[in-house]
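Worked example

This section walks through a single chain of length 830. The input is the sequence exactly as stored; nothing has been trimmed or padded.
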Amino acid sequence: MKRNVLILSALCTCCSLFAEEVPVKQFRYAGPYEIKEPFIVDSLDVNSKKFTDAGLLKTAIPFNNVRESTRTLDADTPNGQSKNYSVSLASFYLNSDRYTDGSLLISGPEHYEVYIDNEKQTPANGELKLTLEPRRYEVVIKYLTASGETNNIPKATFKTDSKAVVTATTDPEKRYTLSDVFDGTRFRSVSLSPNGKYLLTAYQTTYPGGDTESFQQVTDRATGQILMESSSNHYSWMPRSNRLYYTRKGIQGKELVTIDPATRAETVLAGNLPDGWFSFAPTEDFLIFSITEEGPKEKDDLQQILVPDDRQPGWRNRVFLHKYDLNTGVLARLTFGHRSTYLNDISSDGKYLLFTCSEETLTERPFSTTSLYLMDLQGGTFNLILKDPFISQAKFMAEGNPTLFVISGSGEALNGRGLNIREGQTSNMSDGQLFLYSTGGSLSPVTGYSITKDFHPSVQGFEVDTKNQTIYFTAEDKDRVRLYSFNFQKTNKSFFEYPLSEDIVSGYSIATDAPELVYFGESASNSQRLYSVNLKKNTSVCLKDLSAGILKDITLGEVHDWNFRAAAGDTIYGRYYLPPHFDPNKKYPMIVNYYGGTSPTERSLENRYPSHVYAALGYIVYIIQPSGATGFGQEFSARHVNAWGQRTGDEIIEGTKKFCAEHNFVDARKIGCIGASYGGFMTQYLQTKTDIFAAAISHAGISDITSYWGEGYWGYSYSALASANSYPWNARDMYTLQSPLFNADKINTPILFLHGTVDTNVPIGESIQMFTALKLLGKPTAFVQVVGQNHQILDYKKRAEWNKTIYAWFAKWLKNQPEWWNAMYPEKSL
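Given that input, the structure is written out below as tokens.
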């Protein structure tokens, strides 16, 4: 594509830099818009000021007029003569390849205003001081032409003393940036009415600066017409009757209201509801409430901690089940005791409940045991179905059969019936499995078996169609999240993978009384899209493409899969991202990223470390899925257990070296690596094993396995997975030799430590102690704490600054461009 771009390279000598001038050669133009002088009622306004011509510039003209204009004009050229006053818009874009300071010089019109990315600026004597980050900036000049004057297009020049390559253009193309990740409208959930006729979609819009707005829409699927929209009510579908329901404040307390989406007619179904979460019975005649009761309080100054989890706010509170009869208004307590009870499922005929409760067993991994109960609501009886430390949730399998259940858990559930690992391995508890369990009937007397033992993807959430005895579930399949089903009525029992159009299924809904499915998701190079799937015809239609608006004018680089055969003989999967307008003859710095907990680094556009943003900054990004990740089979994920970097670290190093050897566009001297949580641990661990990285970043990383095990809210419970049956007193070598802190003297790579000050998962001390060690060793390092943030950085402004800190650190060490880092964190004399 031919562009109206001028690039002037900065000239430099051994002792000085000459200023680079980037004149704006062309403007996108809209106008002129004729403006009439107002009727002068009084000579002075309320602030005792006279009316002047400059006041006509306050005329509001949408900037979209110039964005959508196809007219371009050369700078400093006449554009006709005005018979009356007129206002015009002239715009262009500034792009910089790096962080740089400079000045925008504007001349021509006597009266004008300058806007940078919609924000009004105040030039001084025609000069506007600017700091450019490596992204696109929109500049709009709004100027006034007096009656009888020639409409002269402005003249603008950007000047900088740095080596930055700055361009001025009318081409709207831009690189993918943080604001594209943060801002805009996204789906939050989708839900089909029971008959599939209506679709309820929940959205959230994030505005620049961080303000958010949530709303829901109800659409007629046949016509696409929006029937209802609300930003105040939280709607859900009734189980069977194709009506919506929500709660609101009424004169007699909380009301339950139903709505017919076709007519919008409302009916108050119940009043004076209790506080708490509730689930509708499939029969629609009662609700099951989960009501929280507060536990005993401690003194403000001295607080006794009863068990490790007692440190967590609200841990002493308990949740109990209650039945609310919609016909009588009677609220009956169903569970009572010291332990919380959690609803799992209600049978389709409304006669039975499945619920679980857990008790701590701190002397035995995984430190708690879950009990699954069946409650007969009519007879008032309770039966213990199963007691197992490795189960998580259960649902009824078949309509009219209260003895057959689907249970989720890890491979060790049901005495290890779901395990598919090598001898000597311990299962990775986050590798999700499904089981069929029966207390009688055709599987009598009591039995259970694994549905997914030989199924490599790791199960996430699931739901059951009891009428057709079909399980629907999402699962991690390598770096994708796919949707599957399993039908028990079919003779050839096998898993069916739905041929969906996105790599990551973020949410889905299946109509209970129609062969219809809707889902939304994203892929490596697009944001969210919403689809409808006809389950009989197996055809798919895109209902809404949010990605098109989010990625407007953005050019993304290519994404390619790249796998290698590791020394141990396994195929290690991965992918890599190229910068936009990639030049295979150039040498690019590279950033390597790997998994955090045990889930693979998923193939999504928008995540904690959005790879396309790094690629847009001029990096090759290599994502590797080393041993220990879920989604590749139980044996593969079990390699995470009691390893703490062993094999995983070797594969990252091996993969990085082989990638560089096979791709000569990578500058092997300029490779960075980054990870968070367990990935932050891996960042630190890798630097004790190799010097191939020129820079490293550890966010919320673990430096000492022992201190993490004992201090974080979930340190000891995560260690039930990662350090199964291994403790500081029986596995001293693992806790010390694998801890980066005990090997700090081997580190030569500059490491940046990032950590939220109130991180309850990996306490900030994990970064503090490693930073301290490296400082005492005289090694290059930096430490930035994010005040008031937990394990993830969620605050909009702080998240933006946190990301820029990452970009600045890599620019300093991988591009020899310290300006951004020095501007954010100037040297201080202490």
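What to look for: The domain at 6-173 is CATH 2.60.120 (Jelly Rolls).
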